[in-house]
Amino acid sequence: MEGRNIFLLKQVYRIIILVIIFIASLYYFGKDIKEVVFNIDNTTSMEETTFPFVTLRTEEKVINLLHGYSSNLDANSIREALLPVGSNQAYEVMINQQEYDIKKLNFELRDFTQNELIEKGSVSVFNEDGDIKIARINISSELMSDKEYAVKITLITSESRKMYYYHRIRKYNKTNLVEKLDFVMEFHEAIKDKIRAEEYIRYLEPDGKKDNTTMANINIHSSFDLITWGNLQPEFITEVIPTIVENHTDIASILLEYVVSADVSDIPELYKVKEYYRIRYSPDRIFLLNYERRMEAIFDINLASVSKSQLKLGITNDPTTEYLASPDKKKFAFVRSNELWFYNLDDNDITRVFSFRQEDTDYIRDIYDQHDIKILNMDAEGNVDFMVYGYMNRGQYEGRVALVMYEYNRSEGQIEEKVYIPLDEPYQTLKENIGAFAYVSSLDIFYFHLYNSIYSYNLITRHITELANNTSKDDVVVFYDEGYVAWQESSDPRDANNIKIMDIESGDIQMINADRGYKILLLDKIDSNLIYGFVSEDDITVSIDGTRVVPMDRVEIATTEREVLKSYYKPGFFITGIEVKDNTIELYRATKQNMDGRIVFVAIDNDYIMNQSVERTSYLNAETRITEDSLTEYYLSLPSGFDMEKVPDRLYTVNTVISEDPTLRLQKNRHYFIEDESISPKRNLYYTYILGELEGSYDEAADAIALADSGVGVVLSNSNRLVWERGVKASRNVISQFEAMNLSTTQSSIESCLKLIGRYIGENIDNKAFDLKSISAYEVLISHLKLEPISLSGATLDQALYYVSNGRPIIAMTGYNDAVLIYGYDAYNIFMVDPKQGKTIKMGIQDSTQLFEKAGNVFISYLSQ
């Protein structure tokens, strides 16, 4: 009996202990738990950042903070930082090991354009400076001066883990790097103090037209007061390490990135700052060509304005906030500072659903901004589907580039990983290759648009369907409010036989088909209606510069139910493009003409279609306030009728990753990734980089050049060739070989220009015949001269002269069938060959500009061989 009592007593003790543990657990899990091990379904927490960060040292200067990748990417796919080296071709890699013990460093040197391996080596003996390991790299292969190469550095740990770091390298006879960096850092330090900064006033170019009411975007034209931080007194939280973005012997573009704290109305606020310098070095002095400082407040819920029921966005260049409200409008999710938040208006609480930022932050690795978040859907209970794409700052995918789709379960306060798609390109190009359409339906179908393919992925059966495989992001329109998406069957107009309209909940698809002998193009949307046009197959042509011309003879506006609301058709007139402005559709028109056997479409006056204006109200609105310390600040006004009463209670999710493998590997789209260009020509795409970041991708080089010109940037092709760069065009250059050539008069001026280029590059095609009525000059440059041509049509003459500056002549059209060959210029004149006169001529720059503008600024050249 006594033994039984002891047994019962033990059971009671066990029950009491379990109850205590249960109560303690409720208390513990009810607190602000950021990341814990979740003991169901073998879930795990998101680990903190672990990767080493790497800097480079050359000429005793530490530059170029590099972030590590787990993904083994192509070395030439990342162009974050450039390392200038001198004739010794040596530099040091500074490794801040963090959580790892680095035992070995491997490096590869590759051609930047072709990615061909030139040299590889390894370092296993390191110097040490405190916690920093230092590896010296000596490149034995002779580098060509001013040619860009790609370097991949592989760090290998004591546990054989590999991490990859990437940078560009360029050799100079004299880098002048020390002088350039000294100027930049002295300027940066001086503007912290208004008195000290006075010695740098002579470098500034103040302009009264510049907006001096904001700290978000300061440039060389801003007031001296704003350049010297106005009334803010920033405390620098992170070390300022310069990144060399671009460099030439005399010109350099240098970026400083850091985090500061500043008191606004006696309350500390955090800001991410990017400070950009473009300078020209000369032995006598340094010229500041451009200065820009961009400042972004890091979102903090504790700064909410309770009295006005507003969330503070603070100093920002982009007050636009992506959000999605629940059906009852009582809950909404929004993205700010690369974090996803969920606000419950009924209980006035806010949840940080997803963030890479950790409590013990170094403000370097966890807040690295090479990723984005997109909200996909929200149900009535407030459960949110979303995706994160780009570089993964921490967790089990740390250092990988991927697209990860999550589901936030509001009742359980956790996020569950549903899909993981590994990708093999950096965020900078990924963001240009991912379409706007992404959605999760109530039937658990995940739709997304990537690399010109639209996919449907069943989250339950894990079956993936490719709905479209040659549709660019410009050929898709989405109507989320109405629940539809529409896309053109193919981005190649010759294969565009229909437009598909899909109900994004049911997956049902309807089609608008082209008539026999016609193709159909999806042009845009206006309000909740589609705009599309019809083009005759016989009218699809290629212009002399290789540009495809797709003149439509009819444009229609229709509902997503395919009801035609309006049709525009005028016999003899064609529409070559449209632009939607508010409730107006502007039609770019042309007429068809036969010019000496070649069909051309001649631009005429535009026409317009007026659409009935539909007034839409916004759920959230950004408003501004002006303060003495920080000037213009933005606030996000919450829905009308809501009273905040107090700062929202802050909640956190438990970050969980389900152990069941969620990996989805996509096959490469054969239309997007061309392995053999002899079978299918590669699609031209032009990337514009400004301040070291990719700002846009374009089908037309002129569009990319225009952006680079306005933003002091560079343009690269998708074959990694340099297309254009602002500020490096010589003040004068003449390709003298053309002045020594034997010239004769000819009526076929375009053909003559092509043959002159052939002579210039050593490919004589004088005896070859080609019919320019049936093929373009662009095609001749490919097939007969083996060049990589580029159409510069739409660029200005000054922009096009970059090519002549680099020793490449330009075919410039003076009419529909007439051309000259530009081979030189100086401050006053353009030098060209006029085949019809059979001689070289010069013409004033103003007269030349007017001549080429009248002909449509049609220019053709080629990329470096």
Task: Describe the protein in words.
The structure is a single chain. The model is unreliable at about 1-40 and about 675-680 (pLDDT under 50). The chain is mostly beta strands and about 850 residues long. Among the domains are: about 1-30; about 55-170, Immunoglobulin-like; about 175-295, Roll (Nuclear Transport Factor 2, Chain: A), CATH 3.10.450; about 685-725, no CATH class; about 735-860, Alpha-Beta Complex (Cathepsin B, Chain A). The chain is globular, with a radius of gyration of 30 Å. The strands form 13 sheets. Strands 52, 53, 54, 55, 56, 57 and 58 form a 7-stranded antiparallel beta sheet that branches. Strands 11, 12, 13, 14, 15 and 16 form a 6-stranded antiparallel beta sheet that branches.
State the main characteristics.
seven-stranded antiparallel beta sheet; Immunoglobulin-like; mainly beta; 865 residues
CATH homologous superfamily grouping of the domain at 733-862:
Cysteine proteinases
CA-based shape: globular
The radius of gyration is 30 Å
Q: Count of helical segments? A: 10
Helix content: 10-25%
**C-alpha termini separation:** 99 Å
Uncertain runs = 1-40, 673-682
Derived structural class = mainly beta
